Amino acid sequence: MGGGKALVVGGGIGGLAAATGLRLVGWDVTVLERSPVLADVGGGISLHANGVRALDALGVGEAVRAAARPQYTGGTRAPDGSWLIRMDGKAIERAAGVPVLGVRWSALHRVLRAALPPECLLTGREVTSVERTGRAGAQVSLVSPARTTPEARSEADPAPLEADPAQMEADLVVVADGVHSRLRGTLFPHHPGAVYSGSTVLRAVTDRPIALPSDLELTWGKGAEFGHITFVDGHAEWHAVLTSPPGVRYADALAAMRDRFAGWHDPIPALLEATRPDAVLHHDIHELVTPLPCFTAGPIALLGDAAHAMTPNLGQGAGQALEDATVLAAALASEPTLASALAHYDTVRRHRTRTLARAARQAGRAGHRLTNPTLIALRDTALRLTPSRPVISTFLRHTRWTPPSLG
Q1: Which intervals of the chain are annotated as region Disordered (predicted)?
Q2: pTM score of the predicted model
């Protein structure tokens, strides 16, 4: 079908990727982002082969590779430092054709922003509702509470604040407003929404470059996981996932992590030592345990965490949003009508993401969620006895994906 006008709600990784893909196939796109400024925030992402291939299809793969570091060494350990699984990143690269990449969230976001003209990125716009119109399109209602300074606006958006419309219409609306999507609740009012997964995560990027013995590691202990990935500039991101009631917070999160992981192997103490206390981010992990009945509603498509928020145990959150963006753009390019394009998108993406969300949940239960010492010992023994080839095969099963053509 030919291009039309699209509104993308949400300026995160998924929203910007969707906007990039839609523009590639001839659509006029406007991104509406709630935050007043698209700041460089967040931690790090490990991009697997499927995510990298999606970025290639969107035309930004090389730019992301230049900002990323291949993760060739590492694996999974026990708290005493003994190895449960060794990761052979070169073997993964040979099998998948693409290495695992470690990249800052902010670097990936900058690459996607650079792929879009500044005038299509409108910040400080909070979308409060979305609905179908009587003219085969959709309309969003929005307010601009955060646009109080010149910095809180697009560089190419000189209009005064009072000129902002209360509604905007388009042929297509892409909802990419995250795990706690307000618009998902509007479109599916009877869906229970995102629920607490039982885990909370603290993460930070080191304040300085740090020499580490391996690129990417996970360590599984009783009800906890500690991991790191490394970046091209020598800095690293660490994360600590804890089995915890929701809402628990610490007066000094960094000190709490030093206490929680005291006695765990090197380089965990060094990673914490290289971190500023104010750099630690903390959020509870929520997921859509109940899958959505559909990823579309008329001319409205949900994408990324708004559609299929999953636990991070497979490292596939960003990758699945990138796949969504690619499949949506390709469907719009190849299908004869908007309705058939969205039907194709829904069919393909619901099946894939439901499978991965279930696998991620199971991986968490077998990993950091375990607290029974006997079960932990059995798991660790089984992992140590598993040859490398089945480990690589299991890893690749979730990353095997070929992007559709956008041409």
Answers
A1: 136-162
A2: 0.94
